[in-house]
Amino acid sequence: MKRYFSATLFLTCFVALSSLAQVAIPADSIITTKHSTTILGQAIKYTAHKGTQPVWNEKGDAIATLDYTYYERDGVAKENRPLVISFNGGPGSASVWMEIAYTGPALLNIDDEGYPVQPYGIGKNPYSILDIADIVFINPVNTGYSRILDKDVNTNTFFGVNADVKYLASWINTFVTRRNRWNSPKYLIGESYGTTRVSGLALELQSSHWMYLNGVVLVSPTTLGIERGGPVDMALRLPYYAATAWYHQKLPADLQRRDLEELLPEVEAFAMNELLPTLAKGGLLTSDQRQAAATKMARYSGLAEQVILQNNLDVSPNLFWKELLRDSGYTVGRLDSRYRGIDRKDGGERPDFNAELTAWLHAFTPAINHYMRNELNFATDVKYNMFGSVYPWDRSNDRTGENLRQAMAQNPFLHLMVQSGYYDGACDYFNAKYTMWQMDPSGRLQDRMSFKGYRSGHMMYLRKPDLEQGNADIRTFIKNSIPAAGTPAKY
Question: Which CATH architecture has domain 7-225+363-480?
């Protein structure tokens, strides 16, 4: 027998049951709490709606429920107020990361460089974009508290590039309708695999639900289904290697003295104009050409020429993370190469673990569980999945980059901003630039695309200066992508 709680029934019963944990997540529920904060020196009052909303099948049965947190600023008109719809990645990751560390009004207790501190806790985010936009953080199936309700449903309904986009678009349609936000300028923001998700959603919302967006923000984007392999893949890595080596002071003295953002364009130019055609020659390279390439790659990567030559000029990210600091007994982090790890042995070709992810999990997990129960009054015995099982995930027919291009081509009001950390080795910044170039080979959409780089890793907002700047960039992006009243669409 399916258990179903309407929003009204849940609210009626919640006060009486508030001291009791809910064993199962209700399909449809909402808990509302009032809060206040200060953003950019301005006092802000807001309402947090913590709830669940069903995913229905074609018969109208609730087959799953997604938990979400919706933050609304109080005392402002909603008619034309922007709405930001936020996802994280994985694809099995909850939206915890951006909710309590980036755009939301709550802020994880970390130091200014983004490293965990104890005691764990939650404070207030003085840079949140809640001053100019309302935000909903959504947890897809099996992340956060979101769960499948119908045990007989085929998981292919949810677990795949295109299935994910399809059911989430329907869910968003319902949410926007319930909240009466159809007139609002709408924005999608996704991080990591969340960028695949929102790129696909941009077209799905537009073509299947006639919901047109003003903007998409890609934080640490994936490849979005855009092919890159062989020499292209090999060459695109080098600027990230240079940034990481610069951070760990492994570059030659003349390069080390230069500012990172002044150095990187030189490395990017070498990667595209010299290294890429060199790598394309493969076995046709003469010994002198191979040596010359290895010498310059070593100069920009901090690695020894011998290592580069031993790998035929193709140094994998795993080997780089293991090799760069091998002589001092450390590895560097995959998602944020400012972090150092300690392996069982110095030998080998890849690190034993991701030092940065371990650090983040032990800071975020207690904080989000405390926050949901004690600040948002969402009490349940259901486990909050930081990472939930969404496998096997169908990655076939990933055309999400092309989907986003098509959505932008059809909607002249749709703008794109990419945000990347220079020290992100999982979704590196130069690959993000390449994605933008290849997504729009005609160049006709470039005036609606922008790139922002930051001196941190995959979750660039963990570093306080980038938290402030990243939110400022989103705030500017939103303001600049809302046309003046009466501005016609120019196709």
Answer: 3-Layer(aba) Sandwich (3.40)
